[in-house]
Please model this.
Amino acid sequence: MTLVGVAVRQPLMVAFGQVPFAILLAAVALLLPAARSLDRRCANFSVDEQENAHPAMQLRRRGSTAVAVWMNNGGKAPLVIRRLTSYVSGPVEVEVQEAHFRVGAGRAVRFSVWVRTRGVGRSSLQGFDVEILDPWGLLAARDYLPCLQRFETYPAVGRFRPPKERRHRSSMIRPSRGTPLSSRSGTAVRELRDFQPGDPLRAVAWKATVRQRRLIAREFDDERTQVEFLALDISSSMRAGLPMGEKFDHAVEVVARLAELHLQQGRKVGLWTFDAGVYGELKTGLGTPQLQRIQRHLLELRSVVDAERTALSEEELQEALADYLLVQERLDFRHGQGLEGQVDARLLKSWLAAMMEGESSEWNWKEPATGVVEETASVVRQFYRFRGLELDPPSEVRPGTKVVGIQAVIRAILTGEGAGGRLTIVSDLCGIKDVESLRRSIGLGRRRGLSVRILAPFSPFYTEVATIYEKTSQGAGRLLRRTQKDRLTKQRVRLVHELFTRSERRERRQLARQLEAMGVEVQFIGPTHSAGQP
Model:
């Protein structure tokens, strides 16, 4: 009776009060068909194959690349896109240029995204979180649609150009300008050996090749002085710090630039990567093929999947992968309902093996990684590498493991190469206590003609107080405000940063003096700091 009385006394007010409710009902009725069209059976994303023909796009670090993406709407209702949020894995950022557009029923719309790389390695765009609106813009619906695209980010080095050649009787490479006389190629043959990838064809000993029925190359006397060995520390201490991985990415670029410089000057270059032992080994070689092998190995260092070099166990990886496939592929590999069920490991591995066998040929993907000495990876770990899903390294570095790794590198060089040269080690020298064992290995190398120098990334060079403070504030879910509390927090962060910087500086200086007493040159490097003492 009350409602009837109000309607009789004030009919206009009651009518106007019902209008918003009717509009909302109409908006819901218009949004429901669009929400059904947003299902991945009707709508999907695909990367433009004409512009991006390579299955894994090759990028350069510290650059931005525009990528064309198609959104296809196979449903019966148009889609009004309000927002697209990208989901990525690895050192890459994807930003959508067009934030608002419309996709008609049965049509496709092409839009662009900017891909920005943050480090060297494999990465991938996994998909987009799509938010759509009704035609009046009152209500919204959301769903996730996959859009898998792999990226390969290479070190930011210039294109390799081999030194100019001059034809004369000795048929040797003309040294580039600035090459010391001691590194120029000689004409006296020291020995014959098996032909190695990267050796020039003019070094082939054809008569010996015919006799042995395999390619034999000539090695000259003064080629000893041309050999450059590079060793990169890939342990967890190199990957730590804020921002995460910045120190390791800079070390990778340093190694890539050194390799390019030495190869341009006509020197042989080899690469070893290590932590507690030798992980990767690329024998010495010459020219562009060797530089490409080195870049490929550096690319794959973010995709290390060894059980001993990753933080998660096999069971934990299966749990995480089951959650990933539930969202990405809409496949449930758990017993029962919900995320608490046990993972069916047998069914999961069978699906992974069948999927990778079909897609690896389509994506031109090869296993194992380039230059890896020995790697035993399960099909679950291989899938993480295939999809560009980065695995975290162990959180702690065991004392003494870095010394063991450097010893293993020196032993591998002396055993496999059998010739003198210069070894450049790029390592932060974290956790090195057994200096005596290191002195014996370096001394053995020097007696065999192997000189050693160390380029040490100094961790505080890669960490700024503002960066730490910003990440701490974001992690706590607070906005950065210039209040008294925030100023006190920033002062505390600066104090802790100074204390740790002083401690590390003191330890590194002491270790540097001990190494320099052995005849080892030590240089501390950073992204904005020239080589020198910290």
Summary: Confidence is low (pLDDT under 50) at residues 160-187, 465-485, 530-534. Residues 168 and 174 are 10 Å apart (CA to CA). The first strand starts at residue 43 and ends at 47. Residues 484-517 form the longest helix (34 residues).
